[in-house]
Every structure is written in structure tokens, then in C-alpha cells.
Design brief:
oxidoreductase activity, acting on NAD(P)H as acceptor, alpha/beta, flavoprotein, two-stranded antiparallel ribbon, single chain, 225 residues, electron transfer activity
Length: 225
């Protein structure tokens, strides 16, 4: 039995009175999860919508609590880190992580960044040792599979694309996922939303199909990943 952690980050709902306002990234992620749960109904499933229910931003007091040894933390400091501890436990106990995210201003939503800031934490998800020279940070977690599902209004953010230098969402997800213990990453992207033309329709259909196929394939191989 495996555990799947599903993180949505769009501020939009998946179903709205006006369907044009529906979140595409959430819809595609749901297609993946539905197939996964159909194939593996006994797996544990954890869901967080950080777009609608965002974690708090880290503060100076949060940083102070993080760098205070466990045995010396006050009750207030333990309370400050309670959500961080809970979300780190969700990540550390999961085998596969699905993160859906729209591209806002060429990067990830602030809500998703807040989630990462809460869980990429010294002595919890990474260690720090200056004896390693110029690369003192090292992940503590390992062996996880990540599926990222992104949506964007424009297009061409891939390597060699017309907007290669402007797309900071996927590269940021790749960089940060290292500290979630991710060793294998799959990416599904939906583009052209602002154009609303046949290219967009084709991109949505392709992303939904990719989600179905990938979920089906991973559902039979996750135990060996």
C-alpha cells in the first residue's frame, strides 16, 4: 500500500458557476487522482488545497523556533511550528506527490511558495554541514516520485521555447522538490489559456490524456520506484 499526497495551489475552484473560471490545473490533477484511486483504492490519500487554504507565511519568530533545539523550545515556539511539523510528516510519509499549480506572473503562486517555505526546513527535510564545501545542503528524505501539473496563459516556456527565459514555475518546482526527497519527476503542462483558441483546446485535451496515462502507468509501477 502506498500513500499519495495531492497539493493544489490555484486560487480558483474546480467548479464555478461560470465554467470559464474553473481551475485547469486542479481539473487535470483531479483526472490523475481519480484514475490513481480507481486503480489503487486501498492507498492512503492526503489532500491539501493551499490555494484556498494557504499556510501562514514564515516569520522571524518561525525562524527563531526552527533554530532553537527541540528540547529548548517554548510552548509558543512548538505552536508556531505545529503546522510545519504536520505538513512535513505528510511529505515524509508519502510515496508519490502530485502538485498542481497555475503560473502567476511567470512563477508559482505565493500560497504554494508558502507551503514550500514551511516544509523545506533544516534538520527535517535537509541537513546543513559546511564540511561539504560549497554545497553544504543535503536532502534528508529520498525515494519519492513527483508529478507536477501546471497551467499557463501563454506558451513556449520549455527549453528552446520562445519564452524559455520567462518561465520560472517548472524550474522552481524542480529545484525545491529535491528537498522533498524527490528522485523521479514527471511534468504535465497546459498552455495557451489566454488565447482560448484551438491550440489551447488541444493543450487541455493532451494534458488530461497525459494525466490519465501517467496515473495508469505509475499505479502499476509505484511499488518498484
Amino acid at each position: 500500500m502506498s500513500k499519495l499526497l495531492h497539493i493544489d495551489s490555484s486560487v480558483r475552484a474546480i467548479n464555478n458557476l461560470n465554467p470559464e473560471h474553473n481551475s485547469l490545473s486542479k481539473s487535470i490533477a483531479l483526472r490523475f487522482v481519480d484514475v490513481w484511486n480507481d486503480k489503487r483504492p486501498k492507498d492512503e490519500y492526503i489532500y491539501r488545497d493551499v490555494g484556498v487554504n494557504p499556510p501562514e507565511f514564515i516569520t522571524q519568530d518561525w525562524i527563531g523556533a526552527v533554530f532553537t533545539p527541540d528540547e529548548k523550545r517554548s510552548e509558543d515556539q512548538k505552536s508556531i511550528l505545529a503546522l510545519s511539523d504536520e505538513m512535513i510528516d505528510e511529505v515524509s510519509s508519502s510515496d508519490i506527490i502530485v502538485i498542481s499549480s497555475p503560473m502567476y506572473n511567470y512563477g508559482m503562486p505565493a500560497q504554494l511558495k508558502a507551503w514550500f517555505d514551511q516544509i523545506v526546513r533544516i534538520n527535517k527535510t535537509f541537513s546543513f554541514d559546511l564540511s561539504r564545501g560549497d554545497f553544504p545542503l543535503q536532502p534528508i528524505l529520498s525515494g519519492k516520485t513527483l508529478v507536477t501539473i501546471t497551467s499557463s496563459g501563454e506558451f513556449g516556456f520549455e527549453k528552446g521555447g520562445v519564452r524559455e527565459g520567462s518561465g520560472h514555475l517548472a524550474p522552481h518546482l524542480r529545484t525545491l522538490s529535491k528537498y522533498l526527497g524527490v528522485e523521479t519527476t514527471y511534468e504535465i503542462a497546459c498552455e495557451y489559456q489566454e488565447f482560448g483558441d484551438s491550440r489551447h483546446q488541444a493543450s487541455v485535451a493532451n494534458a488530461l490524456n497525459q494525466a490519465e496515462v501517467l496515473a495508469s502507468e505509475l499505479s502499476t509501477s509505484i511499488s518498484t520506484l
